[in-house]
Design goal:
Elements: H1 3-10, H2 14-35, H3 49-70, H4 74-84, H5 86-107, H6 117-157
Helix pairs in contact: 2-3
């Protein structure tokens, strides 16, 4: 990230915000290590529910501060593209992560590797990279077509 451009874009205490984001991220990692595995889908919040809530609040704050740091930079456009179509990602990621990847791992006899953090990071990056062109195609073909239909209907409804 071009930190000097990000600082000139936000014009207020950027270095302090950056340090807070790093600190909150470090605290979240430590809390998560201590609290252990969590799963909202299974209503399992780790060893201590309060640590789960605190991690969530710190993570939310870190994302908000980070967003204010990268506002009006090239990387913000990248995140904006994913955020704009997050419902597509939300609807498909569960089946990719819980169905397709484990079946592929069983088929290739690599199921034991799925519990390793580095494998999970690589899979996350690969899925994100795969989503990027899909979101672009959705923008190009579906969104433009919907806008064309909406504009056509609006023209038809206008009184003459």
């Amino acid at each position: 990230m071009d930190f000097s451009r990000a600082c000139s874009a936000c014009n207020r205490n950027c270095f302090l915000k950056f340090l807070i984001v790093l600190s909150e991220t470090a605290i979240i990692i430590l809390l998560s290590k201590y609290n252990g595995w969590t799963s909202i889908a299974d209503l399992y919040y780790g060893k201590i529910f309060l640590l789960f809530v605190l991690s969530g609040l710190l993570g939310t704050d870190a994302v908000i501060l980070f967003s204010s740091l990268i506002k009006d930079t090239k990387i913000s456009k990248f995140f904006e593209r994913f955020g704009k179509h997050s419902i597509i990602i939300f609807l498909t990621h569960y089946y990719i992560c819980r169905e397709m990847i484990p079946k592929f791992a069983q088929w290739t006899n690599t199921y034991d590797y799925l519990n390793k953090l580095w494998v999970q990071v690589v899979i996350t990056v690969l899925i994100s990279v795969a989503y990027y062109p899909l979101v672009g195609m959705y923008d190009r073909y579906i969104t433009k077509r919907k806008l064309k239909i909406i504009n056509t209907e609006a023209v038809k409804k206008q009184p003459e």
